[in-house]
Write a structure and sequence with these properties.
Helix content: 25-40%
Shape: globular
Number of strands: 6
Radius of gyration: 14 Å
Order of helices and strands: HEEEEHEEHH
Amino acid sequence: MNIEQVREFAITLPQVTEDMPYGPDWLIFRIAGKIFLHLRLDAPQPTCAVKLEPDEGAALREHYDGIRPAYHLNKTHWSDLYLETLETSLIESLIVKSYQAVVKKLPKKLRDTISDPALNNINYE
C-alpha cells in the first residue's frame, strides 16, 4: 500500500475531512474535527500514524516489525504503520479502528450523525 492508496481509503470513511495544518509535509484526516490519521508525506519510508487503544497498540508493535511508536505523537496512543511492510488488509483494518476509536469518544449527538452500518457494532460505553 502506498501513501495515495491510504489517502483514497481514508476519505471513503463517512464524514472524513482532510487538511494540512502542520504544513505541506503532513496530511491529517479528521472525523467531526478530531484527528484519527496522520500521513507524513516526506517520510523516508511511507508511513501513517493511527490512534489505537494502548494495549492493542503495544501488542501489535510486539507482533509486527512494521508497527512502531508514532513519530512526534503520543506513543501510548499513536502507532506508525510502515506501509511497505504490512498487508493492505491490516493497514485498512487499523485505519478503521483508529476512526472508530475517535468516533467512540464523540458526544452522542455527533455520533448519531455518522451513518455507517459498520459503525453500528461499536460499543460506546
